[in-house]
Specification:
Elements: E1 2-7, E2 10-14, E3 20-23, E4 36-38, E5 40-42, E6 56-58, E7 61-62, E8 66-70, E9 73-81, E10 92-100, E11 103-107, H1 117-123, E12 128-132, H2 141-151, E13 155-159, H3 174-177, E14 184-186, E15 188-190, E16 200-204
Parallel strand pairs: 3-5, 4-6, 5-7, 11-12, 12-13, 13-16, 14-16
Antiparallel strand pairs: 1-2, 1-15, 2-3, 8-9, 9-10, 10-11
Length: 211
Amino acid sequence: MKIQYLGHSSFLLSFERGPCIVTDPFGDVGIPLPPVRADCVTVSHFHYDHCNVEGVHASRVLSEKGVFDVGGVHITAVECFHDEVCGRKRGKTLAFRFEAEGISLLHLGDIGEPCTPEVLRRLGKADVLFLPVGGNYTIDATEAKRYLDAIKPAIAIPMHYKVKGLTVDISGAEGFLSLFEQTECAKTLTLNEKPIGQTKVILMERTQNVR
């Protein structure tokens, strides 16, 4: 499978023996969403920076909790709170688990609730973890580290952080990255087998041209 970062919380997941899936396509946030086509779009919640389904040419949209099959990719959508007070500020968000080719990926959407045994039970483990780190509207760098330490993915990819041009009021990735002795960078991440070993934190470069 191949993972490309479109920006903010949006990724293009391309499965070798399956579909292409786009997560949380963003609207007018100061940076452009690249032209992209996909078989399916997942929407964690209907805030403008996560639900620009019109910006993606796709035949299917998943935006409710449940279990789905999209071209052989097993997808589970789990409800979480968008804030630290049980949704009283911002309601709920969805975390999406993708399972295919012997690899599990977990996209935490705009999760804002603290890391607890209950939410971890619902989320489960994952080989690849996409987690927000910018704070304000989601968990911050410190809470993101708690999720990472509990889930123990082989690969952790930060998202939903401030970059040049972004108009959303959140922090940059620096606070999260400073919590680790070593991090890596990648433009495209290709996984030919299940990743194993201690967690690698990979900061992905935003792609402008989807291939």
